[in-house]
Specification:
Elements (H helix, E strand, L loop, with lengths): L19 H4 L2 H18 L2 H12 L3 H29 L1 H22 L4 H15 L2 H9 L7 H9 L4 H16 L1 H7 L1 H14 L12 H4 L6 H32 L3 H17 L1 H11 L1 H19 L5 H29 L4 H30 L3 H29 L6
Length: 413
């Protein structure tokens, strides 16, 4: 019979005959998904709008890269703040606060207008609160589920990154019909509906831990395991969100596609990465997170190394889909490992690991813009990130034996 300690709470001993859907709280899992999904939609919305924004504001390739990367970096940093808030006031209340900030920021941007490059960066910081939803939605769901179902629970809640598909599909079309600034106001409508559903459905898990001292939240950073997990997620999630934000620019600049067509291509890629995330968690539950991640890093490195030299839209699209499938599975695999090692600190570790993923996404998105401006090609940016994937594989190979010896439960590691 498995026993888990959730964020320092009293031990939870699930009945051995409970299926996944009976083991936790399904309405909360659905609420976490919906919140995460719409938050991700607006977090990356500047990417699909970038071709139109850059024409209006006359942005350079480097400025375009920085514009779409800023929400990613802001979200990364805010995940730590939000992770602390989750452990002190609970995930449901933290999510409500974050959603109101994002809705208010988008409404203000629509009402006042965004008329400069600096304005896009300011908006990007506000959208960072949407990216910080990661540190809320995952603990909200995770605290309800025992260890044997963590990969599936975290994967299903994390599948909310499929919101990037909604941004890629609808933002360019709405921008063409109403103007890109109007898209910011229109986004408030579904966000408002999800906020209402969230407040009705979401429920904090019982036996919440008592608040700790601020310094205690950073105790995991004293361990090498925390840094390794952060590094691995900076590659898997960093690659996913960095590509989600950058692909509309890549397809329009590299192949001359219209923003709408580029949005469709981007949607296909990010849909693949989002759909497979829970499968990656389930695979890690079955064969172990280390084995799943090892395959992920190899596949991602190969796809990203070759994509910069793709001779056609079709070839590039196939390679990007392959990369996103690998990276999406890797996201689920990393978060199958995190609760096993840091069950008592899952809130803050979600924030720290999520922060690392956002930093990886900021690096990829900004470096692609810089590479394009300096060399005239996106290839150097892709090659460097492929190298980072291989470096992550080497690191994982170096630590896996020690993990299995120290963590226990080798079948799940």
């Amino acid at each position: 019979m498995a026993t888990a300690f959730l964020d320092g709470a009293a031990p939870v001993t699930p009945a051995p005959d409970k299926s996944f859907w009976r083991a936790g709280h399904s309405p909360t899992l659905v609420a976490a998904f919906l919140y995460f999904d719409l938050a991700f939609m607006v977090w990356v919305v500047l990417g699909p709008l970038a071709p139109e924004i850059s024409k209006t504001l006359m942005l350079t390739p480097a400025e375009k890269g920085l514009m779409v990367a800023t929400p990613t970096l802001a979200g990364a940093l805010l995940r730590v703040v939000v992770g602390l808030l989750v452990d002190r006031v609970g995930p449901k209340r933290s999510g409500a606060i974050s959603q109101l900030i994002v809705i208010g920021g988008l409404f203000s941007a629509w009402l006042l207008g965004v008329n400069s490059f600096a304005g896009t960066l300011a908006l990007g910081v506000i959208l960072g609160f949407a990216g910080a939803s990661f540190a809320i939605a995952l603990p909200l769901a995770s605290r309800w589920y025992p260890p044997e179902h963590q990969g599936k629970a975290m994967g299903l809640a994390g599948m909310g990154n499929s919101g990037t598909v909604l941004a890629a599909l609808f933002a360019p079309t709405l921008a063409k019909a109403f103007g890109w600034n109007a898209v910011l106001g229109l986004a408030c409508l579904p966000l408002g509906l999800v906020f209402i559903a969230y407040m009705i459905m979401a429920k904090d898990a019982p036996n919440a831990p008592a608040p700790k001292r601020i310094v205690d939240y950073f105790a995991p950073l004293k361990t090498a395991d925390a840094w390794w997990l952060m590094a691995f997620y900076s590659v898997t999630f960093g690659g996913f969100v960095g590509l989600a934000a950058s692909l509309p620019i890549y397809f329009t600049d590299r192949f001359g596609l219209t923003p709408i067509t580029a949005g469709y291509c981007t949607a296909a890629c990010v849909f693949a990465g989002s759909l497979i995330r829970p499968m990656g968690g389930a695979l890690a539950d079955a064969i172990g997170g280390v084995k799943a991640l090892s395959a992920v890093f190899v596949a991602a490195a190969v796809a990203l190394a070759f994509v910069g030299y793709a001779p056609s839209v079709e070839a590039a699209l196939a390679l990007f889909v392959g990369a996103m499938l690998a990276l999406g599975a890797g996201n689920g695999a990393v978060f199958q490992l995190v609760p096993q090692r840091f069950a008592a600190e899952i809130g803050v570790m979600t924030g720290l690991v999520g922060m690392a993923g956002g930093v990886g996404g900021f690096y990829l998105a900004s470096s692609l813009g810089i590479a394009k401006q300096v060399t005239g090609s996106f290839s150097p940016g892709f090659l460097i990130f492929a190298g980072l994937s291989l470096a992550a594989l080497v690191g994982l190979t170096a630590v896996k034996t020690g993990w299995r010896a120290r963590w226990g439960g080798a079948a799940r590691i």
